[in-house]
Amino acid sequence: MAEENSGQEKTEQPSAKRLDDAKQKGQVPRSRELTTVVVLIASAVAMMFMGERLLRSLTEVMQVSFSFSRSLIFDTGMLVNQLWLGVSIVAFDLGIFLAVTLIAALAAPALMGGWNFSGQAMAPKPEKLDPIKGLKRIFGPQGLIELAKALGKFLLVGGIATFILWGLRAQLLTLGKQEVNVAMTELASLILWVFLLICSSLILIAMIDVPFQKWNHIRQLRMTKQEVKDEHKETDGSPEVKGRIRRMQIQLSQQRMMQDVPNADVVITNPTHYAVALRYDQSKNGAPVLVAKGADLVAQQIRLIADQHQVPVVSAPPLTRAVYYSTEIGQEIPSGLYIAVAQVLAFVFQLRRYHTRGGNKPKLDTEQLPIPDELKRD
């Protein structure tokens, strides 16, 4: 089916969100044939078990209603009393039969689509009053399908009923030769069995209608490729919004990272393209931790903050690249860089001692720092 707005074909299966939205609107697969079969068969079975008791109750009601004394004719309250008496006699047996039928009517929808209460489905829809749309529904594909089902049910039920009655013709003719009570009892039994067989024949119609209704429900909810994309945007957010959120997350992360730079023990640079800030807690047994890293403008900002807070800055390009690409913020440096970073930290500590106590100025050959081949980056 072509979509009216975009002209795209609805080739995609409905998503879980579309199915949930349809359910909220009351659009669930339903088979009237299945409901009819369940209710009729339940009624027939209930009548087979309750029919004798219900017949006796109705007989008692007839006897009570049509046998009274002459004096009761002139009693103004007799009608109400007789009505209440008749209802009390038949109420229990008839109530059980009606309860079984009601339970079957409520349970049948649960077999297909489940129970579903939707306020939107109950809301008035003015478009349903449009006679043109009504004619389209009657003479459209759905109307033709319903007509075909009605004709199929008529032919099936009529054919099976004719076949059953033709097979019982001899037994039905002999009923006229029997006593009235016996004939009526046998006739009632035959009617119940014929009714049950005819109702059971509708199971074939239901077996065809149930898969069709499920298929038709999915077909009506199919989506175009554009609808799938739009739904993904609504669910996951548009790329523009996601990009903006991502940029904000990066900015917040950088702000927190920059707040940790003043607490670093050393900042190692490339010297211009990369910068990493390391902190080593001597009270713990762990390795140095990367508290900040960045490239280009971020690296420049790290160096500026380090200068402002008198954090030593050491230019060691190979080591900087190795730490930058191998370690994430908040993680310890890999074991392969322990010796190289230890030499840098030792140089920093010696440099601090030199500035406070004097003596020979320490030196560090950053090109000779031991860096494993697997951690080197060009």
TrEMBL record:
InterPro entries: FlhB (IPR006136), T3SS_substrate_exporter (IPR006135), T3SS_substrate_exporter_C (IPR029025). Gene3D superfamilies: 6.10.250.2080, secretion proteins EscU. It is found in: Cell membrane. GO terms for biological process: bacterial-type flagellum assembly; protein secretion. The chain crosses the membrane at residues 34-51, 150-170, 190-212. SUPFAM superfamilies: EscU C-terminal domain-like. Its main location: membrane. GO terms for cellular component: plasma membrane. This is Flagellar biosynthetic protein FlhB. It holds the Pfam family Bac_export_2. Belongs to the type III secretion exporter family. The keyword Disulfide bond does not apply.
